[in-house]
Predict the 3D structure of the following.
Amino acid sequence: MHDHVHNPNGHERRKPPSLTRSAIQATLHCLTGCAIGEVLGMVLATALGWGNAASIALSVALAFFFGYALTIQPVLRADIPVRRALRLAGASDTISIATMELTDNAFILVVPGALAAGLSDALFWWSLTLSLVIAFVITVPVNRALIARGRGHALIHELHAH
């Protein structure tokens, strides 16, 4: 597979990534922020002995925070004003993060004992890991559809190249 194509004038240019490849990259980006937030939230809530609702709320809040934080960094480096960068991050990532969070938390809720598992329990770690893998698989087509319509990460794709 070639990453370059020839123009009629003989110059090479980079071939645009496929929609599926763009969706996978966007979802991996989203997964990174969500995983940081989920793991940190679950670890903190478990260590503090918080209940299920508080644990999920903290994990979701941190997943959105880190997801947006990872998006906004390259946008700010592209000299976009902070207010506009915040709007772009919200517009590009909200549906992706929400899909991922809904999926992985639903999985954690249906796995018997997963939410009650302690940090030293294998169940805690494998269920959290598997929940993120499942969320990734479900979120890729969502991001693909958004990018195909010029939404989601398509809004900031150019800025991530800086």
In short: The two ends are 24 Å apart (CA to CA). Residues 20-160 form one domain. The chain has one domain: 20-160. The beta strands are 4-6, 12-14.
